Amino acid sequence: MTAVSELRKLYPSAFRVSETLRAAGFEALFAGGCVRDWLLGRVPKDIDVASNATPEEVEGLFERTHALGRAFGVIQVMMGEEAFEVTTFRRDLAYSDGRRPEGIVPSTPEEDARRRDFSINGLFLDPVSGEVIDFVGGREDLKHGIIRAIGDPLDRFREDHLRMLRAVRFAAVLGFEMEEDTRAAIRTRAADLGRISVERIRTEFVRLLTESARAGDAVELLDRCGLLEQILPEFLDLRGCEQPPEWHPEGDVWTHTVMMLNELTCPSPRLALAVLLHDIGKPATRTVDADGRIRFMGHAQVGARMAGAWMRRMKFSNALREEVTGLVDRHMNFMNVKQMRVATRKRFVASPTIGDELELHRVDCLCSNGITETYEILQQVRKAVEAEEALPEPWVNGRDLVGLGLKGPAVGKWKRRAYDEQLEGRFESKEALMGWVRGMTSDECRMSNGECVEFEPRMDTDL
After folding, report:
1. Top CATH class, 146-231
2. Which of these, 107, 94, 104, lies nearest to 159 by C-alpha position?
3. What is the pLDDT along the chain (463 residues), one digit of tens a residue?
4. CATH class for domain 4-144?
5. Which member of 13, 225, 311, 442 has the lowest number of beta carbons within 10 Å of its beta carbon?
6. What CA–CA distance (Å, rounded) separates 133 from 451?
């Protein structure tokens, strides 16, 4: 546990907020997650202050404030560029929408603690004395690594359905066990998750995937609690979807994906979602030949469409959806790397998402056949490309090719071919390269009524 003096060094402005409230005769305690993290020896992400001051009284004490949730007793206090939430000790009235109370009543610190979600989040810290104030058994649950709902867990999850997903996230991120009555209540009320906005669910789910030490275990806990089918029912089809044992000795697609998620360390949302969804198309494409050979023809492309549909349903941004589906769609392209020309490999690693694509491929290999040769080849190519200033501008552009009489798709194809030859270093100048292009296309580009007939040049295998 970090000393209060150390916490003051990290958040001096938070202490000034509490001191201002106390100087005016009000109580001021640090509350919730910051106390939990402080007791665990973790650096709190932010500091929340609980007080018996009303929102109007808080606004009267500070120059810069924002009424984030005046109806719920919450005022944001600005100290320079830092923001701190000051919340009035409260008791919540009835909940009707599975999200927020219909109103609040000012109350005591003990009543305030008992209306919170989990015991580890119901703690207060006196910033002056350093005393931890515990009305709900939170310190004991922290000591033993337990996630326990405060009071009747059915009531807590009826009040705010998102608390069910938060319980799983806290257990996964902190490495805690979930108390049995709390878990049973989640299973009982799991279907209620569908009553709240997908945006709230999406935010919690992404945090679970990116902040958990073992995201695969977190997904399995979601399943045991009955929540996964509410969020991503397509994933359930991965269980029991057997794979070729010579390539996947680890087992079915579910096992493979869970193992991959567990291999990730602080992944970006893009990478975490791509790993989660990379084989989502396998159940729909699985076939078994007469000789017993298992195939998943086109599963990457089918999976990309399924991933895109789910991400639209969950209202992810268009940009993130396109990036994730791109990773899913291309994750099988790595099997062709050994046959690629040097220039093609250079362009392959120049992708703006190559870091996450390589990590997806690495954990895909580690959690199946263990062969990482392709990953190592591309890492070497990537290092070589990064050592260069940048990939050079193409010498040959579309206008040059149109000037030779090419048109339509042929222009783009020969532009790529010319750039490959340039990257291979086979020509010393644009003039020499143009001479080669002119010779290669002269027999195929035939004039008809003064127009160039479109043609399909013979190309090396490319991605």
Report:
1. mainly alpha
2. 94
3. 557 888 899 999 999 999 999 999 999 999 999 999 999 999 998 999 999 999 999 999 999 999 988 888 899 999 999 999 999 999 887 776 667 777 778 899 999 999 999 999 999 999 999 999 999 999 999 999 999 999 999 999 999 999 999 999 999 999 999 999 999 999 999 999 999 999 999 999 999 999 999 999 999 999 999 999 999 999 999 999 999 999 999 999 999 999 999 999 999 999 999 999 999 999 999 999 999 999 999 999 999 999 999 999 999 999 999 999 999 999 998 888 888 887 788 878 878 898 999 999 999 999 998 888 889 888 888 887 776 656 678 899 988 988 888 888 888 888 888 888 887 778 889 988 898 888 888 755 544 333 444 333 333 322 2
4. alpha beta
5. 442
6. 85
Rg (CA), the chain: 29
Residues 6 or more apart whose CB falls under 8 angstroms from that of 435 comprise: none
Which tokens belong to 234? 């397509």
Residue 53 CA to residue 25 CA, distance in Å, equals 9
Residues near 67 by beta carbon (within 8 Å), at least 6 away in sequence = 55, 59, 75, 76
Q: Which CATH number, 3.20.20, 1.25.40, 3.40.50, 1.10.3210, labels domain 249-391?
A: 1.10.3210
CATH 3.30.460.10 in the chain is located at 4-144
Give the orientation angle of helix 409-424 with respect to helix 342-349, to 10 degrees: 100
- The three-state secondary structure class of 220 is helix
